[in-house]
Structure formats: structure tokens, C-alpha cells
Amino acid sequence: MLGRTAPNAAAMVNGWNPEKLKQCQLDDPDIGPALGWLEAGSRPDWKEVKPIHPALRSLWRQFDSLVTLNGVLHRVFYDRNGEVRYYQVVIPHELKTAVLELIRCDVCAHFGYAKCVRSLQERVWWYSYKQDLHLFIRCCRLCSAYTRKKVPKQACLNPQVLGSV
What's the burial of 162, exposed, middle or buried (CB within 10 Å: 0-12/13-18/19+)? Predict the structure, then answer.
């Protein structure tokens, strides 16, 4: 089924397992150092991280909500009460397109940004995932073909007197 609905994502997903995800995270320049910090049990000083890419700085700020499950880096998403709502896999750069295609084509079936962002947020996280999703949906031929644009404004109606007085 996945091969029919999202063929490009299906080819990528078939090889996914915790070992592959961990290796991809270690190879990613924005996630690999964060995994090292987590294994060491402490993050470096802010002065060392400040000149680096914003994605790594974002992981530095969220250090307390990062965990490893089966060796794969996850971000804990808390609800308003402070309880764990779900664990989001931190996705490396090379897998973003496959994840976006999988969510858009298979899980959300081209329903647009609002439904896709919720589905994406429940499963994965990366720096600027909302902007990437928005751009991905705008570039999708099917999504853009069926999305209604903003309704044009109409002028106020004025009564017109017809006939004789």
C-alpha cells in the first residue's frame, strides 16, 4: 500500500531501523554533537555553541527534553500539565524529504497544512519543520490543485429603488 501511495518514501522507509536512524543522526552535523552531549550527560557551555548552526543551538536549549530510545535521539513533547504527551524522533537532514512525503501522501492524504502539521508533530521533530512542511505542501501538485484560495472580499450591498414612487 505504501509503495502505491508514496513510492518515493516507501523506498526510503523500507531500510529504516534504529541502527540506521542512529547512524544518520550521528552523521548529521546538527544532531551528532547533541547525541554526544546526551551520552556524556552534560551539554557544553553556550559560548561554544553560539556560533554554530541554529538547529544545533535549538537542541542545546532543549537538552533537558532530549532522550535516547533504542539508541535513537528523541525529543519529549510535554502537554500543558507537564506530562509527557509523545516522543518525537529527531530527524536528520537526509531523511526530511522522505518523512514529509510519507506524512503528506500516506498519513494525511493531501489534506493540507493544518492536518499535516499535527501528524508531523506527533511523530517527528527537526529545526524549522513547520516552514519545511509549508513549502513542501505549496510545491505539491495535488495539494495546490485542490486547496481553496482566500475568498475575495465583496462590497457592501446597497438597496436599489426600482419603479415609480
Answer: exposed
Residue 16 has pLDDT above 60, yes or no: yes
In a domain? residue 161: no
In terms of Cα–Cα distance, which of 88, 71, 87 is closest to 35?
71
What is the pLDDT of the chain when averaged over all its residues? 81
| Structural domain containing residue 78 | 2-146
Instruction: Give a yes or no: residue 162 inside a domain.
Output: no
Q: Which grid coordinates belong to 16?
A: 529504516
Q: What is the CATH number of the domain that holds 98?
A: 1.10.340.70
In a domain, 138, yes or no: yes
Q: What is residue 1's predicted lDDT score, i.e. its pLDDT?
A: 38
Q: Higher model confidence: residue 76 or residue 17?
A: 76
Residue 165 domain flag:
no
Cβ–Cβ under 8 Å, residues 146 and 108: no
User: How many domains is the chain built from?
Assistant: 1
48 Cβ contact list (under 8 Å, min separation 6): none
| Whole-structure pTM value | 0.74
